[in-house]
Amino acid sequence: MNRSTFFVVALIQLLSAAIISNAWSLPKTRVRIYNKLPGNAELTIHCKSGDEDLGSHVIGANSYYEFGFIDTFSNKLYFCGLHWRGGSMVNDFYRSDRDSNRCHKECKWGATERGVLGINDFEISEPPIIDVVYHWGKPKRL
After folding, report:
1. Structural domains for the chain
2. Is the pTM here over 0.70, yes or no?
3. Of 92, 103, 138, 116, nearest in space to 43 by CA
């Protein structure tokens, strides 16, 4: 290996290490969907992004489902299908263009009989600010 090849390989390794260490230090965004449905109803959630399928999860009453990711280039989109005995829906539960300004580190959603309510995490207030509302469609299996 000649000197210039060695230099290029060493430079690539250094840059790779810098990129990896920087990626680990980036803050992780979390999406949390609470089951606040009446009558101890279970909530089925299935979330996906363009390149990741998070699978289907059944959430018990007064519990939640959570996933996290690093939004490196501010272009993330996660959509989720939700189903319970009172309705179904498929909607965006994290969209960089909307949620990077309304969710500081955690996007909180509450599944209620009325619909799924997005809680603005950026504005600290009591009661919390509901700034996105998704209404239930007719019940159907996901």
Report:
1. 27-134 (2.60.40.10)
2. yes
3. 116
